[in-house]
Amino acid sequence: MSATSADRVLPIEQAGLDRIRPDQRKGRPHSLFGIWSSTNLTPATFVTGALGVQLGLSLPMAIFASIIGILLGSTLIPTKSYVGFRLGIPQMLMSRATFGRIGAVLPSLIGLFSFIGWFTVLDVLGAMALNDGLGIPLIPGIIVLGLITLAVAMIGHDLVHKVEKWVAAAVAIVFVILVFVAFNDIQWDYAGDTALTGGEKWGLFGAIVGIAFTYSGPGYTPYASDYTRYLPLKTTFRQIFTPSFLGMALSCTFVFALGAAIATIDPTADATALVGQVSGGLKIPIALAFAAGTVGANVLNVYSGSLTTLVFGLRVSRWATAAGVAAFGTVLAIVFRENFAANYEKWLLAVQYTVPAMDAIFLADFFLVKKGRHGYSDVDFSLERANPAFHWRAWLAYLVGVAVCIPFMSSFIHTGSVAIALDGADLSYLVSMVVAALIYCGTSISIARSKGRLRSRNIRDDQPGLADIDPDHAL
């Protein structure tokens, strides 16, 4: 096969951090449904959905809390996706306009931390599924899944979209089959932990809302823009919003509910182990589906992680950074494979306490401060010429947004006074987003008004006074 025909079959992406030109725009917005569906058809979504029942909620309360959080979180995905479409650049490159040329290191590090962390979580869970279903030892399973993921991510954008579409369809079928297989074992009338008081249950309800919000929103927002930047310029907001929102909300709700339902069989047991217990003769296909879902979701983490690494100014190819992200994530998966449940809880909390404020600042900058694409027309995103080095208002908004949420935290790290008063309900993510957005918008408006007054004064100063008028031209 010639190089030309090979490129036509599997075109290797060359763009890197470059802005996508109008003649490079391609694709269809409905492919976003497959992208955001496949990210949730994974063992990580299943395990997270089981948490409500495992912590003591009844099955209906666990599912209802999950739905509320998922609907809130899923609205962030299409809005961030729209930003990427309008600007035609990767998510983390936008941070240079918001946080500054050097200041962009902060959100980029948080984004990279998110990508590698999710890669680690998914790689471990996928390997556990292969171990339960096929008897493959954890470490070889982790390495094999990492290599397959890297191969897809290195080819780039077009193959990512194709893989996500087919993974979403295949894994969804297996998950539906799992519902029928486990139906008779599920305790549909499960009432939860009777030792919990009414207040404790509602506090736990609020905590599950926060977990579901974090998983379906901030868990994915650091790379939401990366998969719309190629879409044709004629694409509308509705064409992006509908498939992105439905892909995320429907798949996440389905798998969360499935995880909660199967957890009722034995709330004290490991959720993935319960799948093997009820799957019977379908143990191998279900294990393979979990592994495929892991690859589908991790492709996004490696691809976007490779783009984010380039934002630091490293003069290497996207392929090299993709290999670095996958290798680092694989090593972490091997290191943290033991005591996974506790490590996963810590990871979810880390995302919940660091990403929402950053999301709020990005969205406030695009929709409220710069008011869309034209507000970025004079922004230079290159590392060499971007000015200024720091946008102090973004840093201030982020740091204050994270700090003020401390009294609202409810976790093993810290339980704040407000969270205690709310019986353990964690509202830190909402407080963080609102405060960060208000501070960023307020300081941006103040700066704009100051510049406007200075510009007006300069214009008046430049106008000639009576003494400056040439007498020969006086009326």
Automatic annotation (TrEMBL):
It is found in: Membrane. One of its GO terms (molecular function) is transmembrane transporter activity. Gene3D superfamilies: Hydantoin permease. It is a multi-pass membrane protein. Keywords: Membrane, Transmembrane, Transmembrane helix, Transport. It holds the Pfam family Transp_cyt_pur. Its main location: membrane. The chain crosses the membrane at residues 31-51, 57-77, 98-122, 134-154, 166-183, 203-223, 244-264, 284-304, 316-335, 347-369, 390-409, 429-448. GO terms for cellular component: plasma membrane. InterPro entries: Pur-cyt_permease, Pur-cyt_permease_Fcy2/21/22. Belongs to the purine-cytosine permease (2.A.39) family. This is Cytosine permease. The lineage of its organism: Bacteria, Bacillati, Actinomycetota, Actinomycetes, Mycobacteriales.
